[in-house]
Write a structure and sequence with these properties.
Blueprint (H helix, E strand, L loop, with lengths): L1 H8 L1 H21 L12 E7 L5 H15 L6 E9 L2 E8 L5 H13 L13 E5 L5 E9 L4 H16 L5 E2 L9 E7 L1 H7 L3 H11 L7 E4 L2 E4 L16 E5 L2 E4 H4 E7 L7 E2 L2 E10 L5 H19 L4 E8 H31 L2 H24 L6 H29 L4 H11 L1 H14 L9 H25 L1 H9 L1 H6 L4 H5 L6 H29 L1 H17 L24
Antiparallel strand pairs: 1-3, 1-4, 2-3, 5-14, 5-15, 6-14, 7-12, 8-9, 10-11, 13-14
Helix pairs in contact: 1-13, 2-11, 5-9, 10-11, 10-12, 10-19, 11-12, 11-15, 11-16, 12-13, 12-15, 14-15
Length: 581
């Protein structure tokens, strides 16, 4: 085969290429994002309308219905789901799989903005959010204190810690959970309002009129120009008590006469406690293809030390949940199983071939095949996750075939031919059969292209990892393996010759060779008994066929006892307790 001859004529070219694969492979490992699962990119856009206090029926009639109707102008919509509650409307638009989500978000934004004039006065502008199954919590922080109020804890988490976390790439930061949001409260005195003939609308109008910020320009006096400030926005919230409301019976009524303005907080919707103390929980979510480990490491090493140093006295910032621990454990577990599989494979090769040089050649080709697959996966934008690593661990047992068959066939020709001719003929003879075998295995994984939904995003990277590793293994078995055999198996070729000098060395078998001889004796004994058992089965074909079918049929009896789930049960080292009353 021409590629084998090219490798033998240009051995250093392929050795340098292998070193290049080694360097690029470790570089890809260092730069490829690491996560628990591949990116699951489902094209879904969510539109959220909010209008505090508006009943659910009014929200559905005035907001949700119009929003659903206007989606008719958006292309490639698969389905529209909506949920309306008091003061909020959530519309989820699912698109066809081939849609570019950025273009879809632009169309949705233009559509909802076109009906803004139909919305009730005072409704907040809509939030248009991209849904991603890969957007999951990666770390949760608890802010607690014995000295600070819940409002102060909440404000520090919202305006300080949350702002510092925005510098971390790939993070999505919801508002803190728990605590109370600071709010300037106006407590109305109903009796005083009735006595003055005023309504809450008068109070609202007075606050809006007296709490404004307007550009006032400049004033030029002689050769100087002064900035003029006419803003009437109060610096201190409590000065709103002195705002005039209305003149009643010739007397000016102030805010303090019918209400009391105080620095308070909004009605508390949820409560958070950390070890029994008032707290605010800040959840940091991962978005995009950024590595979970990179996000958590940057938060722990850069953001949290600065936040703790600048925190008010008595405020404690602790980590309650850390997804990176589970990610590391999962990745390390898959890598450990892969190393065990590779070690056992090398041991079996050493046991069957009895040559440490042949085992070394195979042990070199397997990691290079895996690194080649990682290079291609990294170039395609995939991540290092349990699915891709699981595919590579699965492929280890398959990758050994190409190199093993090549070396075994070369060994067969080394007995009668010079080493170079044995390598050339032995590697060329099995080029076509191993190509067919490799392509057959790769074709098995082509079926993932017909998957849809989350399963497609989960299993496609695993299939690609196996296919790329198999193709790299075939190329290496035709190039690098013959080169290494030509360099390393010269001593074994000399030993297995038929000269008188070689016969004198017959007792110089290595320890691996002697172990291989013992193993072959036992293997031939088992082979002989298997041959006799096979002859017995072939002479009794019908009973053997009936017994085989009966044994395979019993598998269907176990189907009702096998559970079904999207993911297997895992031990994440956490306990969550949900109580409904």
């Amino acid at each position: 085969m021409w590629i084998v001859r090219l490798a033998l004529n240009r051995p250093y070219t392929f050795i340098v290429a292998s070193i290049l694969i080694l360097v690029l492979g470790f570089s890809s490992i260092a730069t490829t994002p690491t996560d628990i699962f591949p990116n699951i990119d489902i094209p879904v856009v969510t539109v959220i309308w909010s209008y505090s206090g508006l009943p659910a029926k009014e929200m559905e009639q005035r907001v949700t219905t119009f929003s659903e109707f206007v989606m008719a102008v958006v292309n490639d919509v698969k389905s529209i789901d909506s949920q309306t509650v008091s003061g909020a409307s959530v519309i989820k638009i699912s698109f066809q799989p081939q849609v570019h989500i950025d273009a879809a978000m632009s169309q949705v934004g233009a559509a909802v903005n076109s009906i803004r004039f139909r919305m009730p006065p005072g409704v907040n502008p809509p939030w248009i959010l991209r849904f991603s199954a890969s957007t999951v919590p990666v770390i949760q922080l608890s802010l607690s204190s014995d000295t600070l109020s819940e409002s102060e804890i909440y404000d520090y988490g919202l305006f300080r810690v949350r702002q510092q976390l925005t510098t971390v790439p790939g993070t999505l930061l919801p508002t803190p959970y728990g605590g109370v949001a600071r709010q300037i409260m106006v407590d109305l005195d109903q009796n005083a309002l009735l006595a003055k003939g005023l309504t809450p609308i008068d109070v609202t109008a007075a606050i809006n009129a007296q709490n404004v910020t307007l550009p006032s320009g400049t004033a030029k006096v002689d050769s100087r120009e002064y900035t003029v400030s006419t803003n009437s926005s109060p610096i201190d919230a409590l000065t709103l008590n002195d705002v005039p409301i209305k003149t009643v019976n010739g007397s000016l009524v102030y805010m303090r006469d019918v209400a009391h303005v105080r620095d308070g907080w909004s009605v508390q919707q949820n409560v958070a406690r950390s070890n029994g103390k008032p707290a605010a929980l800040l959840t940091i979510m991962k978005t995009g293809s950024v590595s979970t480990l990179d996000i958590v490491n940057q938060i722990k090493n850069d953001v949290l030390p600065a936040s703790r140093a600048a925190a008010p006295k008595g405020l404690k910032i602790t980590e309650l949940f850390d997804q990176s621990i589970f990610v590391k454990a999962s990745i390390v577990g898959v890598l450990r199983e892969g190393v065990i599989a590779a070690s056992l494979t090398a041991l079996m090769i050493l046991l069957f071939l009895g040559s440490w040089r042949s085992t070394l050649i195979i042990a070199i080709s397997i990691p290079l095949s895996i690194l080649s697959s990682i290079i291609v996966l990294g170039a395609m934008g995939e991540t290092m996750n349990t699915m891709t690593l699981g595919g590579l661990a699965l492929a280890i047992g398959i990758l050994v075939d190409d190199a093993t068959v090549t070396i075994e066939n070369i060994h067969r020709h080394m007995v009668e031919q010079p080493l170079r001719e044995a390598v050339l003929i032995g590697a060329s003879e099995i080029a076509t059969p191993t190509l067919v075998s490799t392509l057959t295995i790769c074709i098995v994984f082509v079926s993932v292209v017909f998957l849809t939904g989350p399963a497609k995003f989960l299993f496609t990277p695993m299939a690609l990892a196996v296919v790329f590793a198999m193709l790299a293994s075939y190329v290496l078995s035709r190039t690098l393996v013959p080169v290494l055999v030509n360099f390393l198996l010269g001593a074994e070729h000399t030993f297995e010759g038929h000269s008188t000098e070689d016969a004198a060395k017959a007792g110089a078998r290595s320890i691996f060779g002697r172990i291989n001889d013992r193993f072959n004796e036992g293997y031939f004994w088992v082979q002989a008994r298997y041959t006799r058992a096979l002859e017995t089965v072939l002479h009794n074909r019908k009973p053997a066929l009936i017994v085989s079918i009966a044994i395979m049929s019993t598998a269907f009896l176990l189907v009702p006892f096998v559970g079904r789930d999207f993911f297997p049960s895992v031990d994440a080292g956490q306990i969550k307790l949900h109580i409904r009353a």
